[in-house]
Amino acid sequence: MQPATLSTGKLGAMAVFVGAAVLEVVGDALVRKGLRGSGVALVGLGFAALGTYGIVVNLLDIEFSRLLGAYVGVFAVVSVLIGRLVFHDSVPASTWAGLAVILVGSLIIHLGRPG
What we know:
The chain is mostly helical. The chain has one domain. It has helices at residues 10-38, 40-57, 64-85, 93-111. Helix 1 (10-38) packs antiparallel against helix 2 and helix 3 runs antiparallel to helix 4. The longest helix has 29 residues, at 10-38. It is flat, with a radius of gyration of 16 Å. The model has no long low-confidence stretch (mean pLDDT 89).
């Protein structure tokens, strides 16, 4: 059986990363809301979104450690932005500084030479 992969350019990979990050953040938010009184159905929907994220991000034909190393930066940005814009979280300067550090690390992993 052939492994399912998706070959894209850098822009396509970034689009897949963003889509996967949205699925992961939405899945986490649904599980959180379900556990805090909105019911088991939301937890189930959250599980489905998280499972879909796992499939989507792993379709990219990128070495596993580089894939997740690069993805972490996108996930961090999407998480903070959704927290701020959707949940109206107050994001302190320390979070923005930490996000910058994560992005630098993610870029080093993504742009570095393959092993």
